[in-house]
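[Discussion] Sanity-checking designs against the backbone

I'm trying to build intuition for which residues belong where. Below is a structure token string of 130 positions. I'd appreciate it if someone posts a full sequence so I can compare it with mine line by line.
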């Protein structure tokens, strides 16, 4: 028994419909309160109630986006390694052809990485606000 409860000797009985109780219970479960009576007491006396709501679908999307971003960065590193090999090409013809192809692919990849990075940032901001 909590120490604060020792002086609580008065009891209030309240009847609710199933819908009313379900609504209160849902709000209680979304809070950090451990007991329903504590949640109701805080609500009655206008004390702050800390909520722990998280959007699960947004969390899942955030996780997937982070994995994708990591994979794309690894691909970018591979392209950079290819660029080093191109720079050590023996003939000018091979070098030019490979370099042009490399630059096109690199630009596309880095544009996508930037897009995903900005998208991830927007999701993170929305996630942190909830």
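Best answer:
Here's mine. Compare freely.
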């Amino acid at each position: 028994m909590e120490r604060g409860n020792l002086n609580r000797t008065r009891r209030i009985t309240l009847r609710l419909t199933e819908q009313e109780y379900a609504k209160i219970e849902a709000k209680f479960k979304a809070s950090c309160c451990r007991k329903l009576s504590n949640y109701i007491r805080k609500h009655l006396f206008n004390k702050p109630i800390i909520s722990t709501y998280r959007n699960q679908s947004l969390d899942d999307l955030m996780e997937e986006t982070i994995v994708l971003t990591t994979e794309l960065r690894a691909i970018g590193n591979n392209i950079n390694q290819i660029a080093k090999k191109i720079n050590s090409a023996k003939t000018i013809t091979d070098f030019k052809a490979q370099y042009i192809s490399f630059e096109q692919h690199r630009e596309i990849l880095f544009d996508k990485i930037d897009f995903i990075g900005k998208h991830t940032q927007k999701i993170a901001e929305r996630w942190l606000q909830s």
